Amino acid sequence: MPATAADALEHGAPHGAAGPAANLLMIGQARGQPAHVSRLGIKKTFCVPPLRGHPLRDRCPRGAANGRADRADDGGPSMAERETWTTDEFGSSHEGSIGVLLPDGTVPEPAFFPLSSGAGGQTTSEWSVYDGRFSLTPKAHALRAVCSCGWTGTEYPLDWAKIGEQNLRVAARDLAEECEAEWWDGHTTTVEKSAIAVPEDITDLLRLVSEKIEKLAQQSPLAAVRAARLLEVTAVRSSYWPAHDVRAKTSPEEAGAALGLNEDDTLHLLARFGNWSPYR
Fold first, then answer.
1. How many CA atoms lie within 13 A of 69 on its CB side?
2. CA distance 255 to 245
């Protein structure tokens, strides 16, 4: 049997195993798990047990690699793997996750689980490993939704007297669902409303084109792919001069606020549309 959570990563653990070792194993399998893709956004699942399904998102199947390290932007000081959520439109500018608070109100350091072989280990800030069962991880006091933009949600204290020896991911699933719902239904909705408005006839037209392509895909997938490609070409052509006008007349801060993006993502978006290097 693996002696530590990191050993579980190295030697494997049975499906459905409980405890931090199993949690970390599932997180470590991120490189073998595809991003969750839906019409609204992406959820990197890290092979964790799914929370109650959000009405606007489906769960993804197992598949090709897509894991990566995500910054602990709720005040954590370094890079670590954990489950994150992004929307299609706002991407990494608003990358949500479940954050952890300690009793003194601080954010814990990412947990590092060394392998017994000495060949590295696993670093994670996934909320479910902070159960105090390993000396390497403190016990979480509360959970909250956090976002890469700096937004933080409601704090939900953990009742350890009730949790007892249960697996934290299972015992606190309801609180985790509250955090996730607050980010999807609250924060991202606020960001969308704060972005510059697009005329309704344009949004209706885009919605209609999307529906038409989806319908076409049922009859001819190849024709649907070509239609999507033509839509992509049209988008590139129609955004070229607007991108140059924005670059000439609007500051990156103003453009970012209007688009719901951070400054770096704004500059890269304009550069892609305007066909110039974002580094010049």
1. 9
2. 11
DSSP 137: S
Residues 196-221: pLDDT tens digits?
999 999 999 999 999 999 999 999 99
* The residue type at 142: A
Coil, strand or helix at 220: coil
Record the tokens describing residue 238, joined without a space: 């129609």
Q: Which tokens is 143 given?
A: 């959970």
CA distance 261 to 267: 9
**98 with 143: CB under 8 angstroms?**
yes
Cα–Cα distance measured from residue 151 to residue 188, given in angstroms and rounded to the nearest whole number: 10
Distance CA 52, CA 174 (A): 8
Q: CA 253, CA 255: separation in Å to the nearest integer?
A: 6
Element of type H or E holding 85: strand 84-87
Q: What is the pLDDT of residues 79-115, one digit of tens each?
A: 457 889 999 999 999 999 999 999 999 999 988 878 7
Three-point CA angle 234, 239, 240, nearest 5°: 105
Distance CA 167, CA 126 (A): 14
Global pTM value = 0.69
User: What's the Cα-to-Cα distance from 271 to each of 8, 93, 233, 235, rounded to whole Å?
Assistant: 44, 16, 16, 14
